[in-house]
Amino acid sequence: MENVIDQIEKLAAIERRIAMVTLVATRGASPKKEGAKMWVGEAGHLLGSVTIGGCVDARVIEASEEALAACEPQMLSMSLGEEDAWESGFTCAGTIDIMIEPVDLSNPEDHLREVYRAVRGEVESGRCVVVATPLDRPASKVIIYDDGRASRPLGEPELDREAREIALELIQRRTSRTVALGSPRSTTDVFFEVHGPPPTLIVFGATHVSMPLVSLAKNLGLRAIVVDSRPRFATKERFPDADELLVGIPSEIARSLRYTSSTYVVLAAHDYKYDIPVLKIVLNTEAAYIGMLSSKRRGEAILNFLGESGVDAEALNRLRVPTGLDIGAETASEIALSILAEAVAVKANRPGTPLRERR
Asked: What's the gap between Cα 165 and its chain centre?
C-alpha cells in the first residue's frame, strides 16, 4: 500500500492543487476505518474514497471544491439516515466526520508535504509514527515518534503528555482515532493518524500449510517472509506471494529478523530440531502472535522441554500451540484460515467468539 507522501508526489505530476480528505471519526458501522483517504483535484482528478462511493462521496467532493476555492481546511460532519447508509455502503445509520485539507502541489515545501515526507522517513526505517491533528486547527500538526518524542508542543504540558500517551497506545494497536483531550470543562478533539511498516507474517517452515497461509496473509495486507533450510522447498514457484524467501539455518535467520507488535510468527516445520531453537529466540521478542503447528501432545512436550531449559513461564504462555481457532479445519487452506483468524484475534485482544455472542 502506498504511503501518503507517495500519493501526493504522484498527484503532483497531474494536479496543481488538491484536497486531501481524511475520515477522522465514525459513529455507527462503516466500511472504511478512520484514516481512510480520498483525493479531490482542482482539475477534476479523484483518487480513493472515504466510503464506498455514492451520495456521501458526492457531498465530500462538493465540500472539497469549496475548501480548495477558499484555500482553507474544512470539517464536514454528515448524519446518515437508514436509506443513505445502505446506499453509501454503511450497514446502519450513523455519523461520519471528515477533515478536508488543501495541498499546494506546486510548492515543494508545502506544510503537508513536509509532514508526510518526515513520516515516510520513519516508516522506511521500520518505525511507527503518529500525526496528531487538532481538528479545530488542522494546520497545527504534530508528529509523535514511537519513542515518545514530539516534533513540537501540541499545547499545554498536560495536553502534550496526554497526547503522547495516547499516541503510543494507538501505535501498539495500529489504530487511527479521534480522541477528546483535556479536562471535561475544556476539551480538544485531536485526530491521531498512525503510520508504520505493514504488519508482517514470518513463517518458519516451507510446508504445504505455509503456502495458503502466505497467500491468505497477502490478501489481508501483510508482508510475508518464509524461512526454511531447504532450498527446493522455499521457492518462488511454491510461494509466489512471499515478499522474502530466506534459506539457511532457521535459528540464525530468526535471530537476524526484527519483531514488533505487528509481527505474526508461525512455526510450521513440525521438526523439533528447528522449532525449539527458533522458539527460544522468538518467545523473547515483541511479536504480537507466536503459533506452532502441532498436535496438543507434541506441543505440551515442547513446552515442558523449554521450561526445563530455562524459558520462563510468561514467555511460554505466549506460545499458541496447537495454533489456530477451532473451526473444524481439515485442509491446508482451512488450517491457514484458522491460524490467521486466531492471530488477528490475539492482536486485537479479542476472544475469537462468534459475533452474535459479543456483548
From this structure: 19
Length of the chain, please? 359
**pLDDT tens digits for range 64-90:** 999 999 999 999 987 765 445 445 555
Q: Cα(29)–Cα(94) distance, rounded to whole angstroms?
A: 7
The CA distance from 58 to 98, in Å, is 13
Q: Which residues contact 68 (CB under 8 A, 6 or more apart)?
A: 17, 18, 19, 40, 42, 102
Read off the pLDDT of each residue in 255-278 and give the average, rounded to a whole number.
90
The phi and psi torsions of 324 (rounded to 5 degrees) equal: 105, 165
Domain ranges in the chain are 4-104, 111-195, 200-347
Q: Which residues are CB-neighbours of 269 under 8 A, at least 6 positions away?
A: 204, 205, 207, 228, 250, 275
| CATH code for residues 200-347 | 3.40.50.720
Instruction: Calculate ∠ Cα 88-91-94, nearest 5°.
Output: 75
Determine the 3-state secondary structure of 177 from DSSP: strand
